[in-house]
Amino acid sequence: MDEVKVVVAHSERATLRVGDVFLKVDSDQARIDVEVEAMALAPVPTPEVLWRKPPVLAIAAVKGAALGRLGGAANGSAAAWAAVGAAVRRLHDAPLPPWPGRRRRSPDEWAAELDRECELLVANEILPADLVTRNHQVARAAIRPWTPAFTHGDLQIEHVFVDGDEVTGIIDWSEAGPGDALFDLATLTLGHEEHLDDVVAGYGAADVDLDVIRAWWSLRSLLGVRWLVEHGFDAFAPGCEVDVLRSRM
Question: Which structural domain, as residue segments, surrounds residue 162?
Answer without folding.
Answer: 62-246
